[in-house]
Amino acid sequence: MKKLFVIIVVFLGIAVIAISFSELETIIKTLQHAHLGFFILAILFQFTWFVSTGRMYQSIYHLLGIDESILTLSRIATAANFINVVAPTAGVGGIALFASEARRRGHPSGKVTVAAALFLLLDQAAFLSVLAVGLIVLIRRNDLTAGEISASLFLLGIAISYAFVLYVGYRSEEKLGNLLAKIVRIINRIVNIFRKGEYLSETRAHEYAHEISEGFAGLTEKPSSLIRPVLWGILDKVLLMCVLICAFLSFEVPFSADTIIAGFSIAYLFLIVSPTPSGIGIVEGLMPIALTSLSVDWSQAVLITLTYRTVTFWVPFGIGALAFRSLHTGGEEPSAV
User: Of 20, 146, 247, 284, which sees the most CB atoms within 10 A?
Assistant: First the structure.
C-alpha cells in the first residue's frame, strides 16, 4: 500500500509535467535570451528559500518542544510542496506527510500536525504583511482593482478561519471536536446530493481534534513567540522578491521597489487563492497584466513572468520530487500519508 502511494504520487507528478509541456517549451525558449548569471543568482536565492523555510519550521517545532535539523525539515517541506502540487488538498496532503515522517522519526504526530498547521497560518500572516505594503503601492498608483480587493479579502478570510480553528483547539479539545464534526456533517449533506454514503467521518474529526489539542499541550513558550516564525516567513517572501529582481535584471528591464513589491504581491496572492495547484496557468496569465499596469512593457512582462515561474515553481517542483523520493530510499521504509 505504501509503495502504491509512492507510485501514484510519481505518476501525478509526471502528469503535471505532461499537461504543462507547452509551457515548458516556451520557458526554455525564453531562458535562451536571458543573462545566465542573473538566472543562476535567482536559483541561488531559491535554494536559500528552501533553507529559510526549513528554519521557519524549526522555529515552530521549537515552540512545541521538538528538536529537528534544518536540513531534514527543508527536505520534508520541499517534498510536501511537491505533494500539494500533484495532489492539491488545501495543504492537507503536506500536513499528512509531516505527520507520517514524525511517526517514523519518533516525534509525537499530534505536535507535528499542529506545527504544520501553524506553518500554513503563520506563512499566510507573513504574506498578508507584505500584501498590505503591495496594496498601498497599488492605491498610490490608482491601480487597485476589484479583483485584487476580492482576492485579498478571500485570503484574509482563509487566514482567520485557520486561526479560529487552531485557537479553539488550543482552548478546548471538546469544542474543536464539536466544531469539526459540525463542519463534517455540513460537507456530508452537500456531498449526499451527488452521491450516497458518508464522505467524511465524524469520528475522525474528533480524533483530529484530539491530535491538535495534544499538540498544543506541548507548547513550551508563550504565544507571543509566534512572531519569530512570522519573521522567517517574511524573509521567505523577501527571497522570492529577490528572484523577481533577478528576472528583471536578466532582461535588462528597469524597475523600482514599488514595481517589485506590488508585482510580487499580486502574483503570490493569486498563487494562494487560485483554484489550480500553485496557481498553474493563473499566475502566468495574471502576472504579466499586473506588471504591465506597473508600467512594464507587455513583452518584457511575459519574459519576466516565465523566468520567475521557472525558478519559483518548476525548480521547487523538481527538487520536491527528488526530496519526496529520497524520503523513501536509503534504507528507510516508506511511510503512508
Answer: 247
> Where are the domains positioned within the chain?
2-326
Spatial CA neighbour of 296 closest among 67, 141, 84: 141
Three-state SS string over 213-228 comes to HHHHCCCCCCHHHHHH
Nearest to 10, CA basis, from 333, 323, 271: 323
Q: What is the pLDDT of residues 169-221, one digit of tens each?
A: 777 778 878 887 887 777 777 767 766 666 667 777 777 777 777 777 656 55
15: three-class secondary structure by DSSP: helix
Inter-CA distances, 195 with 89, 187, 198, 205, 284, Å: 20, 12, 9, 21, 36
Residues 6+ apart with CB under 8 A from 270: 151, 279, 282, 283, 286, 287
